Amino acid sequence: MSIPLCTANDEEEREESAPSTKEPENRSVLDTEISRRDFVKAAGVLSAGVASGAPKLNAAQQAKAAAETAPQMVTLTLKINGAPHALTVDTRTTLLDALREYLGMTGSKKGCDHGQCGACTVLVDGRRVNSCLTLAAVAQGAEITTIEGLAHGDQLHPVQEAFLEHDGFQCGYCTPGQICSAVAVLEEHKRGDLSTVSWQTGETSAPELTDNEIRERMSGNLCRCAAYPNIVAAVRAASMGERS
Ligand code: FES
Ligand code: FES
Questions:
Q1: What are phi and psi of 180, to 5 degrees?
Q2: Ligand 2 centroid to residue 36 C-alpha, Å
Q3: Atom of ligand 2 nearest to the CA of 171
Q4: 169 CB near ligand 2 (under 6 Å)
């Protein structure tokens, strides 16, 4: 003789078909509007939706999303080291990538690609910028100078010579950025620009380019080889027009 099993569904059936022993006014709104069975069904549908991923975009939404992320190409002419260079790039292309990947000028280095190391420093209208944070399209019309453009033929720039003579590098990866930055530092100092050190020392009128001033003004350029003492010596020598 088999014993009839009472399943959860049977129990629900009985609960729903049995007359309520409670007075209608004692039942909560939830009791009256959502049965346990309805709740279980709704939960099943919901979990199936979650398991299948986010709701699918309709065709119009997909087309809009694709249009928003599609590359927008632009044709530019960049004046680099005195010569015009035409190139067609995605509008999001950085100046660093335009130089390295499109024009083959690999002197400017990509260290962090986040504006933190200074390896990509170039001069734009005489001011030093992190080319990894500068859009190529924004640099159109400006005079761009990279490490390749500092020397005149075989004649190195005085800052390049000073770095050689004072051993201002080890692996050399940061060096193009260090040299471009140092060239700008000397110009900034010449025109009387101040640094944090100038304010700390009170030398706010034509401050002397001390080692502390050089360290502060070059602090945006990191060197993983820690060639800092020799970099400072090179910048100091260049500022004094020394050659040894
Ligand atoms: S690569 Fe541009 S700051 Fe590091
Ligand atoms: S010389 Fe190697 S990172 Fe500066």
A1: -60, -40
A2: 70
A3: 2
A4: yes
Tell me the per-residue pLDDT of 162-209, one tens digit each, with 9 for 90 and over: 999 999 999 999 999 999 999 999 999 999 999 999 999 999 999 999
Q: Which ligand is nearest to the CA of 230?
A: 2
Find the farthest-apart pair of alpha carbons in the chain and give their distance in angstroms, rounded: 111
Distance CA 220, CA 214 (A): 11
Q: How far is the CA of 224 from the centre of ligand 2 (A)?
A: 5
Residue 225 Cα: closest atom of ligand 2: 2
What residues have CB less than 8 Å from 100, skipping those under 6 apart?
A: 106, 108, 110
**How far is ligand 1, taken at its centre, from the CA of residue 177, in Å?**
9
80 alpha carbon – ligand 2 mean position (Å): 25
* C-alpha span between 56 and 49 (Å, rounded): 11
Q: Write out pLDDT tens, residues 36-91.
A: 666 556 555 555 544 555 556 788 888 888 877 889 999 999 999 999 999 999 99
> Is 120 close to ligand 2, i.e. is its CB under 6 Å away?
no
0.90 exceeded by the pTM? Answer: no
Report all structural domains of the chain as residue ranges with CATH numbers, in order of start: 70-149 (3.10.20.30), 151-244 (1.10.150.120)
